[in-house]
């Protein structure tokens, strides 16, 4: 059995917390000190957001009234955990852990003070983020608000007795191989299920399905905010599971019993907002609340048709079966008639095909003898179609095994003509009802077609890591990192160089290689999206797709070809030709930065940290400017040099890096005050413009118009706001330059 330590540098922590904390400043200082003690190798904290949240009067009051309680709760850890450790729910072992609510509160206080010691075991198996540092840094304010409400509720004197007695239990359930059903052979009849667009997965008497990441909690502590994260964020006691659960294997689920709902929220993804404390009805018995965490297959890795292959279906069926099976350790509160509410499990970021996932869950529930309530989350016709199909199959006495065989057959038939649900009906000869519906397939088709990967920009987690929910941002970050490591190694090699439009316009073997890696992965994960990329798809489309990736595999190729370290990898995403997400790696600095519209700009490497614009004190005297000359050797060069010569005596200096993406990052992170260039391609600024704007800079055309990728313009300027005003104003006097004309003599 593995245990994780709870106290690292405890005496020094106690000393640091010897005085009561009642102000924001004292809290901030305490976190910085404690982080330095517990994580000396990673002591920095980003205090920006904590400051902005807590500086409102309501939170000043919170600091005064509730913070001392959180401090005391944390300091009570040694009394509550005299062994000095907590056990881990290791993979492969069916086991339950029980914590009193007072213990949960102490553990959550430890997470709040960012004082969770490294657990000491195989670091890949535990969620990598187990304290609230990213929440403090501004990831998903709704969750931090719910945590404040949680501590507020727990601090009330009237609650203390309850906290001593009530418990949260966490059960890792493991299905032995011998008990795994052979799905194709089952003769269990399909059982009725109830489909409705208006059901909600919430504490209302039914068991709640958690569409989990295999690392329980998914991105809840790193800014992810979809179903699982919202569930955990609004019921903070669920977060204790992140301290004790290794990631789930395919034959495992995790049941949480007893966590209470604290926060109310509205919205989804990045729009999620905490709207206040959830009312608690008198007599509410939280010990009856059961949540079952079930992680779905990450289907985006497979072509849609593969989802019907037996091995992948078996994986999902077995997982859902275990999740739905009544938990013998909770028999008293989980009688045979207790229903479970589920829905589109693994159909968002993970790319599962909704009708298939619905039928697989019906099969699993039939085998597990669990009454199933299925929410289609507002999709009324889809609920009706599913209800009709399942009812018809039941009427025809279909068994789990028969439906399994039919689905496998569909997968093999490659019948693109008939979508999945109509095909199943055809198999069952359920013609009367269904074929009449199928006549209206134009109306119904969207619900039946395999749904390709949905874009999940809003779900990007500011601190993505390799195991977190897949999203476009996640894919882009992984690619940027992978290609950055490749180029860090390859820069030492003699480069294989070819020329393009002129002897000075280069492409190297690594431009092509990096591009191939990026494009092939993006294609697989997002088959519906467009791609514009410098070497292979260099032409901006006449009509931009709903979503398009815009890639410069190596920006600064001339530098790269000379083994000069100033180059970048740029991956952008545009929504209807408007840049919306950007990831840029600067391999030689080992930096990766990224941004999503509306979510701020972050360093991903060397560590997750938000950054904001830096304004020089005096404009233009204190400005460090930069421009690019690109491949222009004609009259436009004179024009660029005209503005250059005019500004040079007025500002601190002007530099030329040779990489537009690099320059964008330098401006966004405050290392350069402003950058302009007359002739850029979309891949030179798509990603960078989002990163710069999200950090508070302005990125526009020379005349201040917003950047769109479909406006045919090639001029671009990015700068801190006051510098931007200045540059737009001064560039306006260079009419010839704006028009791309040579300087008049
Ligand atoms: C070039 C660089 C350069 C800029 C040029 C770009 P590439 O991109 O970003 O700094 O001045 O306009 O074309 O060809 O190295 O990817
Ligand atoms: Ca390039
Ligand atoms: Ca470029």
UniProtKB/TrEMBL annotation:
EC number in record: 3.2.1.143
Gene3D superfamilies in alphabetical order: 3.40.190.80, Fructose-1,6-Bisphosphatase, subunit A, domain 1
InterPro entries for this protein: IMPase, Inositol_monophosphatase-like, PARG_cat_C, PARG_helical, Poly_GlycHdrlase
PARG catalytic Macro domain mapped to chain residues: 181-382
Keyword presence, Hydrolase: yes
Domain PARG helical: from-to ranges: 60-172
UniProt entry keywords in alphabetical sequence: Hydrolase
Highest taxon, organism lineage: Eukaryota
Keyword Hydrolase attributed: yes
Similarity comment: family membership: Belongs to the poly(ADP-ribose) glycohydrolase family. Belongs to the inositol monophosphatase superfamily.
Protein name: poly(ADP-ribose) glycohydrolase
């Amino acid at each position: 059995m593995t245990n994780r330590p709870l106290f690292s540098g405890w005496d020094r922590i106690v000393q640091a917390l010897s005085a009561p904390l009642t102000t924001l400043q004292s809290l901030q200082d305490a976190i910085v000190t404690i982080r330095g003690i517990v994580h000396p190798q990673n002591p920095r904290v980003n205090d920006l957001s904590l400051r902005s949240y807590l500086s409102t009067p309501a939170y000043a009051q919170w600091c005064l009234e509730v913070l001392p309680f959180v401090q005391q709760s944390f300091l009570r850890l040694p009394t509550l955990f005299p062994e000095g450790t907590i056990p881990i729910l290791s993979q492969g072992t069916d086991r339950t852990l029980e914590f009193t609510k007072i213990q949960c509160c102490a553990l959550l206080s430890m997470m709040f003070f960012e004082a969770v010691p490294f657990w000491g075991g195989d670091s890949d198996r535990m969620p990598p983020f187990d304290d609230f540092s990213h929440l403090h840094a501004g990831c998903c304010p709704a969750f931090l608000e719910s945590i404040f409400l949680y501590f507020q509720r727990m601090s009330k004197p009237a609650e203390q007795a309850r906290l001593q007695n009530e418990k949260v239990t966490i059960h890792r359930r493991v299905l032995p191989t011998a008990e795994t059903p052979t799905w194709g052979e089952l003769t269990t009849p399909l059982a009725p299920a109830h489909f409705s667009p208006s059901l909600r997965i919430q504490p209302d008497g039914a068991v709640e399905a958690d569409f989990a990441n295999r690392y329980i909690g998914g991105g809840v502590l790193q800014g992810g905010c979809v179903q699982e994260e919202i569930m955990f964020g609004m019921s903070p006691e669920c977060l204790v599971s992140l301290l004790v659960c290794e990631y789930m294997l395919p034959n495992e689920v995790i049941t949480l019993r007893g966590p209470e709902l604290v926060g109310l929220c509205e919205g989804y993804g990045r729009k999620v907002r905490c709207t206040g404390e959830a009312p608690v009805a008198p007599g509410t018995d939280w010990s009856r609340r059961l949540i079952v965490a079930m992680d779905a297959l990450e289907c985006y890795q497979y072509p849609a048709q593969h989802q019907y292959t037996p091995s992948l279906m078996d994986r999902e069926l077995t997982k859902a079966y275990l999740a739905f099976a009544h938990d013998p350790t909770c028999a008293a509160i989980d009688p045979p008639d207790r229903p479970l509410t589920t829905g589109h499990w693994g159909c968002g970021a993970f790319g599962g095909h909704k009708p298939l996932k619905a039928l697989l869950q019906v099969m699993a529930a039939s085998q597990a003898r669990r009454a199933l309530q299925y929410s289609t989350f507002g999709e009324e016709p889809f609920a009706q179609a599913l209800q009709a199909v399942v009812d018809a199959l039941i009427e025809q006495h279909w068994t789990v095994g028969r439906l399994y065989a039919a689905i496998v057959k569909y997968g093999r038939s490659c019948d693109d003509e008939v979508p999945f649900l109509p095909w199943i009906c055809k198999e069952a000869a359920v013609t009367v009802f269904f074929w009449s519906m199928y006549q209206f397939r134009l109306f119904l088709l969207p619900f039946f077609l395999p749904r390709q990967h949905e874009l999940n920009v809003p779900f990007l987690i500011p601190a993505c890591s390799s195991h977190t929910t897949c999203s476009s941002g996640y894919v882009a970050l992984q690619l940027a990192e992978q290609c950055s490591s490749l180029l860090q190694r390859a820069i030492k090699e003699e480069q294989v160089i070819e020329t393009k439009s002129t002897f000075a316009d280069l492409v190297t073997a690594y431009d092509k290689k990096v591009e191939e890696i990026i494009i092939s992965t993006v294609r697989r994960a997002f088959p519906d999206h467009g791609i514009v990329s410098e070497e292979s798809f260099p032409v901006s489309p006449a009509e931009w797709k709903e979503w398009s990736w815009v890639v410069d595999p190596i920006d600064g190729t001339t530098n790269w070809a000379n083994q000069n370290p100033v180059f970048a990898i740029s991956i952008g995403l545009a929504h209807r030709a408007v840049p919306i997400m950007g990831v840029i790696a600067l391999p030689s600095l080992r930096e990766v930065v990224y941004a999503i519209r509306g979510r701020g700009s972050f360093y991903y490497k060397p560590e997750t940290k938000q950054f904001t614009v830096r304004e020089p004190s005096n404009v233009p005297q204190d400005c460090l400017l930069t421009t690019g000359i690109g491949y222009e050797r004609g009259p436009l060069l004179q024009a660029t040099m005209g503005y250059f010569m005019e500004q040079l005596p007025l500002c601190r200096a002007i530099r030329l890096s040779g990489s537009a993406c690099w320059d964008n990052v330098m401006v966004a992170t405050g290392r350069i005050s402003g950058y302009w260039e007359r002739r850029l391609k979309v891949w030179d600024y798509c990603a960078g413009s989002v990163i710069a704007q999200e950090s508070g800079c302005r990125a526009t055309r020379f005349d201040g118009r917003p950047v769109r990728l479909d406006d045919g313009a090639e001029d671009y300027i990015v700068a801190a706001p006051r510098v931007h005003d200045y540059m737009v104003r001064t560039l306006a006097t260079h009419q010839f330059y704006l028009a791309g004309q040579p300087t008049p003599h």
